[in-house]
Amino acid sequence: MTDRPASPPPIIQGLRTIADRYDVILCDIWGVLHNGLEAFAPAGEALQRFRQRGGQVVLVSNAPRPNGDVLTLLDGFGVKREAYDAAVTSGDVTRSQIAARPGEPLLHIGPDRDLPLFDGLDAPLTTAAGARYAVCTGLVDDERETPDDYAGLLAEMHAAGLPMVCANPDLVVERGTALIYCAGALAAAYEEIGGTVTYAGKPHKPIYERALGEAERIRGAHVPVSRVLAIGDAIRTDVAGAHSIGADALLVTRGIHAAEISPLGGSLDEIALAAWLEDATHRPQAIIESLVW
């Protein structure tokens, strides 16, 4: 069932206009805090202002790597640690799922840069022929390959009955101005041919449960979901994920949906936005062009 309020969600000019409604923010990283090439400084400043008012910020990312690696990346971009209290990644959830299958050989689908995901785990890597299951972190060469390049491998996996753990449910992500295929696109292709997939990240509940647990640990108290705001740039993951736990969602339009919402580029096209929302599976409680205070 889709969530369709009677009136369009408001377009806000800054997080400050709704900040008092919330104690915790669960914030997406890629598309909100950076675009894969550079940080969005005003977004980090907005989160820092929220924390200065007594709120907690937990970054929630579909990055298929442990949170420590993601925080190092944010440091490199210049995102200040004062902008957030903690981070939870789909890589963290994936590691828990791998740890639950000690010693079982697995097929890794993805680039070598994601290999830290397996550090310290009893998880021997092997080929499709010798694996008990597969862990997909992305395309090996995501700047040149498409899911079609994996049709043969996915067919081999399906014939062998291998379940897949998808460590990044995103279909695409921004890298500068380009859209790059993610592990979620391979997982969707695998499901289309009858393969079984378990998703570790957004919009599925395990990553949100972990993130809320972090927020409550830091706050030292239970946080009702009515006081939680999820911020992200994707309807399919960020907004749908927020609704799955009963939290509000703030959609950042300068992200993966930018070309659909503002087809001519430039500022937010409210007419295009309204038409686009008519077909959206979920609607946010509010919309902002870019995250600012």
Automatic annotation (TrEMBL):
<keyword id="KW-0378">Hydrolase</keyword>
<dbReference type="Pfam" id="PF13344">
    <property type="entry name" value="Hydrolase_6"/>
</dbReference>
<dbReference type="InterPro" id="IPR006356">
    <property type="entry name" value="HAD-SF_hydro_IIA_hyp3"/>
</dbReference>
<dbReference type="InterPro" id="IPR006357">
    <property type="entry name" value="HAD-SF_hydro_IIA"/>
</dbReference>
<dbReference type="InterPro" id="IPR023214">
    <property type="entry name" value="HAD_sf"/>
</dbReference>
<dbReference type="GO" id="GO:0016791">
    <property type="term" value="F:phosphatase activity"/>
</dbReference>
<dbReference type="Pfam" id="PF13242">
    <property type="entry name" value="Hydrolase_like"/>
</dbReference>
<dbReference type="InterPro" id="IPR036412">
    <property type="entry name" value="HAD-like_sf"/>
</dbReference>
<dbReference type="GO" id="GO:0005737">
    <property type="term" value="C:cytoplasm"/>
</dbReference>
<protein>
    <submittedName>
        <fullName>HAD family hydrolase</fullName>
    </submittedName>
</protein>
